[in-house]
Amino acid sequence: MGRETVIGLVGKPSSGKSTTLNSLTDANAKVGAFPFTTIDPNKATGYLEVECACARVKQSDLCKPNYGYCRDGKRGVPIMLLDVAGLVPNAHLGRGLGNKFLNDLTEADCLIHIVDVSGTTDAEGKSTRGYDPLQDIEWLQDEIFRWILGNLMEKWPSIVRRHIATKSSTLETLRAQLGGYSANTQLVAKALSLIPNLPPLNEWDNEMIERVIHSFMEVKFPTVLSLNKMDHPDSDKNVSKIILKYPQSKVVLTSAITEVFLRKLSNQKFIKYDSGTEFVDTIDDLGPESGLKPLDDKLRNRIENIRDLVLYRFGSTGVIQLLKSAAELLDLVPVFPVRNIHNFTGGNGSNVFRDCILVKRGSSVISVAKKIMGDVTIVSIEGLGGIKIGEEDTVDIGKNDILSFKVISSH
Question: DSSP string covering 297-332, please?
């Protein structure tokens, strides 16, 4: 089985990381049992919203996932979240829970960095005014960089000696050094390919080593910037500054606390809220037949403020967009394995598309089969309409993403 994709949530104290984590993990619906066998204390199940295949074949009323949820063709696919704790300046020197934080980080395939864009918390998360949140972004990148650099430079002379003695390739030597960061050969190769005219490893000076590490970080820790507290009056100028400084980065404006509040009101039946959108309806909008509870003036005013300052202005609270952006960075697409390719059921019962897994866009169909079933002998693979599909065909959204595998039974 392939390793689960892990998305790490990082951020200094009081940036809104816990609130964001709550809003990503509470799918505000009864969800199926969890697919992950072990969940450590700092792991949680988030839900990536994708278009479900049930909408495409017009069978949304029969869709009942084994894991996660499906609401009107919007499917919440479970994805592993890692809550990375203990983030303070100089973590690479072991400050705070520094080493634990950095070691936890190695498991992540992608980071969501929660930044308090209001500038009302300093580097340590203490209350202030006018702090520049750009510092948080630079400092996080710098911590990771110094940690990897420190680990590598400690052993560099002996690495070079061994490299020359064993006549290894640059890729082999670096793979051996960077493998501890959950990096496979393809990942290290990709990082090296980003540096034009790379000299032989034994000729690298300090500047070249630093370039290689920056390149490795780009591939190993692609980062979504979650600019949280976007509705604070001081946030606008900071958002502009960050987007100007990091034009290539994926940036999502969020108000995690608003999302958590709206979901709470929705669960208490004060509002009808479609998460990820700007739509919030109350009994005033839908009438008493909606079954919603009446509002007092205080609550009515709060909802009006949220509509004006967050939802109508930004289009949503931004939270649902975070995992979508992470999936885009990782190039993940949903694949729907079914037992019966003609009615899309799992073999028994009439419910359709019970399972959905996330794989890298362009993965071969056979690698998808292995991820789902491990090492089994596959006789044939069918796609939509019962069409035969080759093992090396690739998957994408809407292409070879509904699959049925016939295997040799092990009697």
Answer: HHHHHHHHHHIIIIIHHHSS-SHHHHHHHHHHHHTE
Residue showing tokens 């479900």: 52
User: Could you count the other beta carbons within 10 Å of the beta carbon of residue 87?
Assistant: 25
From the centroid of its chain, how far is CA 204? 34
- The reported pLDDT for the residue numbered 1 is 37
Shared domain for 201 and 112, answered yes or no, is no
What are 301's two structure tokens?
């005013």
Residue 95 lies in a domain: yes
**Of 348, 363, 370, whose CA–CA distance to 66 is shortest?**
348
Joined tokens for residue 341: 């390719």
Within-domain flag for 134: no
Please tell me whether residues 107 and 235 are part of one structural domain.
Answer: yes
b/e per residue 386-407 (b: at least 16 CB within 10 A): eeebeeeeebeeeebbbbbbee
| Dihedral (CA of 192, 141, 319, 101) sign | positive
* Burial of residue 270 (number of CB atoms within 10 Å: 0-12, 13-18, 19+): buried
**Domain extent for 45:** 6-129+222-255+320-327
Q: How far is C-alpha 141 from the geometric centre of its chain's CA atoms? A: 18
Look up the CATH number of the domain holding residue 240. 3.40.50.300
Token output for 86: 């203990």
pTM: 0.89
What's the pLDDT tens digit per position in 259-286?
999 999 999 999 999 888 999 999 999 9
Q: Take residue 24 and report the two structure tokens written for it.
A: 């990503």
Question: What pairing do the DSSP bridges indicate for beta strands 402-407 and 332-337?
Answer: parallel
CATH number of the domain enclosing 202: 1.10.8.470
The pairs formed by 289-296 with CB atoms below 8 angstroms and a separation of 24 or more are 293/268, 293/269, 295/270
